[in-house]
Amino acid sequence: MRTQFASLLILISLLFSFSCKDEKAEKTPSKMEEVMAVHDEVMPEMKTIGQLVSELQPLADSTATGQEYAQAVDDLKAAHKSMMDWMAGFGKRFDSEEIMDGKALSEEKQTWLLEEEAKVKAMKEQVDSSIARAKELLSKD
């Protein structure tokens, strides 16, 4: 009975240690997953952009302060357009199996993916900075 208990305890310990190692040894994300992670991080900000444009637009006028608001609105709209343009261009270069299922990429598409990584990071910076600037202006009120 004691040996069965000891054997069971050892077995449980081994199973537990293997399951912990599996959790710790998470796979390294592919370049496609990294690019899509940036997109997924920025996408919810499109709603924020819309809300900020709605708040800023009534404040935009010909005064110096009003012109700052108008510029912030233009920057937000440009950031939104940048996201939409990036998604359209990305969708033309890669099919859903490549994006969602990890289908292997040709050498040419691997090069394209590196280009898209640079574009999505630049777009993220544009979105983040336009939102930060708009929020800064609104906090002065």
What proportion of the residues is helical, as a percent range? over 70%
Q: What summary fits the major beta sheet?
A: none
**Sequence stretches where pLDDT stays below 50 over 5 or more residues:** 5-24
Q: How many distinct helices?
A: 6
Oligomer, anyone? single chain
Q: Which secondary-structure class do the elements indicate?
A: mainly alpha
Rg is 24 Å
Question: Average pLDDT across residues?
Answer: 87
Alpha-carbon distance between the two ends: 77 Å
Overall 3D form: elongated
> How much of the sequence is in beta strands?
under 5%
What's the SSE pattern? HHHHHH
Number of strands: 0
Q: How many domains comprise the coordinates?
A: 1
Can you put this structure into words, describing what you see?
The chain is mainly α and 141 residues long. It has one domain (29-139). Helix content is 82%, strand content 0%. α2 packs parallel to α6 (107-139), α3 (45-56) packs antiparallel against α4 and α4 (64-93) packs antiparallel against α6. The chain is elongated and about 55 Å long. Mean pLDDT is 87; it is low at 5-24.
